[in-house]
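Good morning C.,

I know you're traveling, so I'll keep this short. The sequence:
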Amino acid sequence: MANSLQHIAIIMDGNGRWAKQRLLPRTVGHVKGASNVRQMVKNFSDLNLKYLTLFAFSSENWRRPAEEVSALMNLFLQYLESEVAEMKAAGIRLRVIGDRSAFAPVLQSRIDQAEQETAHNTRLHLTIAANYGGQWDVLNAMRAWQNAYPNKNLQDMDAAALSTYLSTADLPDPELLIRTGGESRISNFLLWQTAYTELYFTETHWPDFDAAALKKAISWYEHRVRRFGRTDEQVVQGHAGDNLGTLNSAPPLVPPLNIS
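The C-alpha cells, ready to paste straight into the viewer:
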C-alpha cells in the first residue's frame, strides 16, 4: 500500500548546467529555473500535497561569481513581487527560512511583506530556503534554546526540545527529498529534519523537472518500506491493515545530550 506523503523537499539543482548544454549564460538557466518554481507549485496544488520546501540559495552559494549572485538576488525579488498576490488568492502560504541579515534591505522587507500577506493561507505551505544551511539551523536552534533557558545546561536538552527551535519547527519533517541535476548529496540542506527522509536523486536538471518527473519520484517513494529502525516483519506486524507509510516521524527520541 502506498506510503502517505505530505511534505516534499527539493534541492533545485542543475540550472547552470541546463544553460551550458544549450550554450547559454548560466543566468538564463536560473531564469528558467525560477519559472519552473511557479509550475511546480501548481503541480503540488493539483496533487493536493500540503508542504513544499525548496532549496533556493545556500549559505555557501555566496562563493559564486558576484554577477551570478546578484542575478539570483534580483530573481528572488522579482519572484516575490510577481507571485505573492496570486499565492494569496490561491491559498498558498509562503515563508522563507535562512539568515536574512545578508540580504539587501529591500529584499528583507519584501520577504516580510510576503509572509504577512499569506500568513493565514493553508492550502499549500511553500517554504523557500534562502541563505540557508542545515548546520546554521541546528546551531541557531541550540543558541535559541540556551537563550530561552539560561539557567539550564545542555544536558537538560533533548531532541524534541531542540526541534522546537529549528526554522521548520511548525512543519512536519519531509518524507521525501528530491535532488535534481545529477548530484547525489544533500549539500547542508535540512540536516536534522531529513534524518528519516527518503532521498531521491535524478539526472534531470531543475528547469526540465516537470509534473511527469514529480510523479515518477512520488511513485518511487510509494514503493519504499519506511522502517524507522524496525525490521520488515515488525513493520508489517505492527501496522497490519494500515498504510505502511503513516510513520511520518522518527522512533522514540534519544535521551538528553550528555556533553561534558
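Safe travels,
E.
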